[in-house]
Amino acid sequence: MTVPHTDVRVDPGSFRDPANRVFYADGEVLRGLDARAARDWRALSASDFFPPLLAAGKVCGTEPVEPARFAAGAGGQWAAVLRHERIPFVSHPYEWSFGMLRDAALLHLEILRAALTAGFTTKDGSAYNLQWRGVAPVFIDVGSFEPARDGEPWAGYRQFCQTMLYPLLLTAHLGVDFQPWLRAQVDGIPAEQMRRLFTGARRLLPGVPTHVHLHSAMQQRNADAATGEVREQLRGAGFSRELALAAVRRIERLVGRLRPRQARSHWADYQRTCSYSAADRAAKERFVELALTAGTPPGLVLDLGANDGRYARLAARYAGYVVAVEQDPAVVDELYAALRAEEQRRVLPLVLDLADPSPGGGWRGVERAAFATRARADLVLALAVVHHLAIGRNVPLAQVVDQLVDACVPGGRLVVEFVHPEDPMARRLLANKPAGLFPDYRPDEFARLLATRCRVERRVELPGGTRTLYQAVTGG
Predict the structure, then answer these.
(1) Could you give the CA distance from residue 119 to residue 339 in angstroms, rounded to a whole number?
(2) Alpha-carbon 404 to chain mean position
(3) CB neighbours (10 Å) of residue 264?
(4) How many CB atoms lie within 10 A of CB 466?
(5) How confident is the model at residue 8 (pLDDT cuts 50, 70, 90)?
(6) In terms of Cα–Cα distance, which of 125, 474, 216 is closest to 208?
(7) How many C-beta atoms surround the C-beta of residue 127 within 10 A?
């Protein structure tokens, strides 16, 4: 007799579809299915379109396991349980660049088109149904597939617009960064909000008449109608799977043509305009490489303030996976495009402000986990970021050190660069601040603070004399 696992942890973000729930046991990512969802899974796995998507890595690796091993809620039992591959690092759409969101949307549409052709559809259209292996998007919501019913529209269209299409239109047509909008509303941007932004001549921009204004009008018209009534109206009007497929193809063409309307960031030229000499850069790279090769190779590396990804790429030679964090969406988009061209699968670039990192969000603040909860690394690279936080954002130096140390797992390694007050980059920041505002911003004070939280293993001053590198072990 199989005894069900009792040490099962349900994913706090998996509750909106009661037919299937994601949970964790023994380090595995699992999905429990009820009787109907189990039937849909059997039909899906036997279809012609789904196995090729699995084989191509466009859908996360999935296989059935013995359901009796895992108890469902209230002492029940799942009709079926699936084991999924573990995504190296879970990110959220408001941490993606424009190109990342666009490519994720295109993959979602490609999968939906293949499903419709084979007589299936997806219940959802959310951007949260996708994750990343490096810079390759992957669809993770296997429980979203179900047989298509003729005469019914795509149930995920509204979610797709609110979490994918509308954010892309904001940046493509208005030059507005979509990340704060998505972060503020877990369900995405409502059509009515978009309608108010796209008035006058903007009403005629590509995608806006149909997917913003018509969509908003239809929502208002059917606000009091039951879902079944709307479906019956569509059937009566002759809506078919072929029409749904044609609509998906049109949306694919629209999304594929969108490009970001962004001014070029001054951070894009940082490696060229910063105060490093060739000797400084070479010494810095040697220091980082020695840290990466000291002891056990790191499983996860966080590169905080990654800019053009120079050190993230270096870390990827030795680490299992690298998350490269940068505040500027345009810089992250350039890095993403470069990594895609290189077919890099071990570096994930993300848009994140270290002085305002992603908090927990959604239902009870835990449906979408905070970045600090997700990001605990074996090795943290904090190169040329301390002065931006301490001077640029007025964060007390002791708290900057705490943030960097807390990003490491216990016993993890930290490689941090301290930019002295006399360095040209620090002087540029200090020039915009009142005199005497940062009396503690000194090399000796930084070294003291670091030693209170870590065991410093190496310390090197770069040849230019205005920057010091530290390698430290946390918890010492």
Answers:
(1) 35
(2) 20
(3) 10
(4) 20
(5) confident
(6) 216
(7) 24
Written as one letter, the residue type at 48 is: D
Tokens representing residue 369 in the block: 């986990």
pLDDT tens digits along 112-161? 999 999 999 999 999 999 999 999 999 999 999 999 987 788 889 999 99
For the chain, the residue count is: 476
Is the Cβ–Cβ distance between 130 and 137 less than 8 Å? yes
Only one residue has tokens 């309608």, namely 195
Residues forming a β-bridge with 361: 368
327 pLDDT more than 80: yes
Gyration radius of the chain's alpha carbons:
25
Instruction: Give the tokens for residue 312.
Output: 């993230």
Calpha distance 96→336 (Å, rounded)? 9
Please list, in sequence order, all residues whose beta carbon lies within 8 angstroms of the beta carbon of residue 149, skipping any fewer than 6 positions away: none
Angle in degrees, 0-180, between the axes of helices 98-117 and 241-257, rounded to the nearest 10: 160
CA distances from 269 to 264, 274, 288, 312, 330 (A): 10, 8, 22, 17, 12
pLDDT tens for 234-290 read 454 445 778 889 999 999 999 999 999 866 665 555 555 556 789 999 999 999 999
What does the alpha-carbon distance between residue 39 and residue 58 come to, in Å, rounded to a whole number?
A: 22
